[in-house]
Amino acid sequence: MGTPYFRPYSKVNLFFSRRMKKLIPLLFLSCSLAFLSQSCQPSAKLIDEEEDPAFGKGRSLLKVGKEDEALDQFLSITRRIVQCPKSHLECGRLLLTLEARKDPIAAIYHFRRFLLLSPDSRESSKVRQLIVSAEREIIRKLPGEPYGGYLDALALKEENEKLRRQVADLKARLGVPLNAQDTSETPSVPIPATPVLAAPISASPEPEPVQPSLRTYEVRAGDSLYGISRKIYGDSSHIERIFQANRDVMSSKNSLRVGQTLRIPPIPRNP
Description:
This protein is an all-alpha fold.
C-alpha cells in the first residue's frame, strides 16, 4: 500500500529535477548576460581628485598652517582615488618636511606614484630632486654613517640638478633653445708644451788630457759621478770607468761621501 502511494510523488520529483537541470544553465547564462550588459554600459565619469571635498579641505588647511591635518586629508584621497597625482605629491612633501610625521620611505613612494601618474608634469624634475633628498635623509639616519661618501655624491647631484634648473629657466627667459650650447665660455686655447731642451753643449775647447799627476779627486758637497766625469774628462761617458776604479770604497754609483778620495783612471789612448 505504501509504495504505490509515493510513486506519483517520485515521478513528479523526477520530472522537476530533470527540468531544473536544463534550466540552471539557462539561468546562469541569463545572469551572466545581464551582468555583462550592465558592465558594458558607459561607466560614470572618473572622479577628479580636485572635486573631492577632502582635496579642497587639505589645501585650505595648508594655507592656515595645519599641515598635520592636511596630510590626513590627502592620504584619505590616495586610499579612495587611483588617479590622484597631486594628492600623492602633497603627501610626499609633507612626509618629508613634517618633523612629527617624517617618513622619507613613504615620501619616496608617493613621489614615485606622482611620476608614474603624471610623467610629463613640470614638477617632474623637482620631484626627482625631492626623491634624492629623501634618500639622503634615509642614509643620514643609518647608525655610524657608513655611506658618508655617498651622501657627498648625492649632495653634488642635488647641486647639479639645481644649477641645471637655473640654467634652463635663464635660457627660457632669454629665448635661447634648451639644447643650444653656451657660447659665452672662453674657448680653450691649447697651451703648447714647453720643449725640453737638451743641456747646452759648452763651446769651450776640449779639456786637455789628464795629466799623469792628477790621479785622485776629493769628493765635495753636491758631487756625483756624472759631474766628476764631466769635470775631469770633459763628458759624462766615463762614470763606469771611475766606479770600477773605486769598487773597494764604493758600494754603488750613488754611495759618494763628502771628503772621500777617489782614484781617477787615465783614458787609454788609441794606438
